[in-house]
Amino acid sequence: MIETLIFSIEIIGTIAFALSGALRGIEKQLDLLGITILGVTAATGGGLIRDILLGSHPPLLFVNPIYVIVAALTTVIAFIVAYITQYYHYQFKNHLSSTFGSLLNLADAIGLGIFAVIGVQTAMQGGFFENAFLTLFVGIITGVGGGMLRDVLVGEIPFFLKKHIYFLAALLGSTSYYLLIKYDINNVIAMTIGSLLTFLIRLLASKYRWNLPKIPSKACADLDHVENHL
Amino acid sequence: MIETLIFSIEIIGTIAFALSGALRGIEKQLDLLGITILGVTAATGGGLIRDILLGSHPPLLFVNPIYVIVAALTTVIAFIVAYITQYYHYQFKNHLSSTFGSLLNLADAIGLGIFAVIGVQTAMQGGFFENAFLTLFVGIITGVGGGMLRDVLVGEIPFFLKKHIYFLAALLGSTSYYLLIKYDINNVIAMTIGSLLTFLIRLLASKYRWNLPKIPSKACADLDHVENHL
Amino acid sequence: MIETLIFSIEIIGTIAFALSGALRGIEKQLDLLGITILGVTAATGGGLIRDILLGSHPPLLFVNPIYVIVAALTTVIAFIVAYITQYYHYQFKNHLSSTFGSLLNLADAIGLGIFAVIGVQTAMQGGFFENAFLTLFVGIITGVGGGMLRDVLVGEIPFFLKKHIYFLAALLGSTSYYLLIKYDINNVIAMTIGSLLTFLIRLLASKYRWNLPKIPSKACADLDHVENHL
């Protein structure tokens, strides 16, 4: 029962990240196969990096094909829906880009929350419970890894470097999950709370444009010439 | 004897991928050293990723320097040839770009076919014969990995996301090799058939522009504004 | 005592690479969090890749948080200094870009020298002393790895593919360190000499524009059309 619930959470995260990859691929004008590969990469990349860091060989995604299959199916369905509805979208251009952008943001936030928590769980099960730093760090990398590979492969700066609060949301969600497990809260409840917390912080930050400070672009305008001095 | 033949196939793949890296580097205006590094990365990257995934430490490319040496020599020779023939090419501009593009495509197709089969072989020898999914997946990643690193390092979207049928060709070649071994066909013959199959599908797809469907660019025109909504 | 000195060298390298990441992040208009992540990635990426290659699980950066903490602090301080001094820089535009570019170059050169030597040391301690090829190769990858991840994540071609002599400097520094250890020179002295050698070659190459040959851009002008022929 518990295992079924945990597995369901994993599958929701897989679908969400696969969808984010499919949307990125459509945006980048990839064909059906390219979109599928990008969706599978987004959905399995975080777990792959986690397994490499923790030394689990071969990585889980190769041992149990279910994640790749679910991710591939998700992207194919997303492609078909996008293909069918494209003519409709010609007439509502602004509508499309806002829907599209919101959907990518939403899917990525769901995946981030779920995979960060799964990463923490895997590190704890791997015997690193005592090392909170390692456990949380591996969790966050699991959360951001799939999206990172997805974005780097198509030449975009990854969300976790650009989006306000992205990394912070994963850190807070992972930490809350870690503490709940430490105080013996039921695993499924703890996973749900940790994932939801990451998800909500991400979406609120998006909606209300919570920003961290940066050096204004005016001061950087002349940086275009930096390369000449390197 | 058999070992010599297998080793020869490996070296052909190494030369082909090193050449593809050299051509990418020349295209990107890298200097001799940059081109050499890119060639070595393309030639050894697939095997490196394979060894990391299967947990072989340290990766083969560090243990036996022959692959790095062959790849470096290949790129230096390619550079010298390009350097000498550049003046000739000034006079035949269209000729150069079509020759150049075809050559990169050809070299990449040879490398893809050979490395996919070598990846499958390594996974089988690593004791994963029973798990066909893992074996084929690792094979394909070995095939596409070198080209992926080559393209990501210079800021290009990798071939396996963009080129028609690229991934599919590696999948069909790997699968045919796997089945031939399963039915006790001689390894060298099986490797040759598997590699040739990948190579031929890739080239035919290139020549006849076999395309998978994608969402037409008109529907995506307004996606330029997607980022604003994230 | 010896350990304290070696640790100090490591921390200097960590600070230098973190600074290079912070400067890249400011240049790319990332916010405070993005800059911090990029700085930590630059400072710990080389060691992370080294540990993955040598099969040390979990990688050192997760086991001992000191490197991440030092790198994060460095980037935050760099951000604050840049934030405070930006108004000053409005008035001295050329000054800013040349200062900025020189500083990024300098920080990267210090990090490269130190991490290449540390990589060689780790490979030797890991029992690979006899295999000079592996030891030096792993050293160089440790040196260039952090900067590679830093640059790829923000969509730039990494220094080690573009900068004159970059790879060669790391190779010469690593080799000198390796030979000094082989002839029983004190480790701290050997590390200092190896790091300084890399650093000096890098800076001299930068200052005097030591260049390796490349195919002139005129010959490559028509390569813009290469993609059409693939």
Automatic annotation (TrEMBL), chains A, B, C:
Q: How does it sit in the membrane?
A: Multi-pass membrane protein
> Which GO CC terms are listed, alphabetically?
plasma membrane
Q: Where are the transmembrane segments?
A: 6-23, 30-49, 61-84, 96-120, 132-153, 165-181, 187-205
Tell me yes or no: is Transmembrane helix among this UniProt entry's keywords. yes
InterPro entries assigned: Gly_transporter
Taxonomic superkingdom: Bacteria
What are the alphabetically sorted keywords of the record? Cell membrane, Membrane, Transmembrane, Transmembrane helix
- Pfam hit, one: Gly_transporter
**Cellular compartment(s):** Cell membrane
* Glycine transporter domain location: 9-81, 106-180
Belongs to which family?
A: Belongs to the UPF0126 family.
Q: What is this protein called?
A: Uncharacterized protein family UPF0126
> Which species expresses this protein natively?
Cellulosilyticum lentocellum (strain ATCC 49066 / DSM 5427 / NCIMB 11756 / RHM5)
* Lineage, top ranks: Bacteria, Bacillati, Bacillota, Clostridia, Lachnospirales
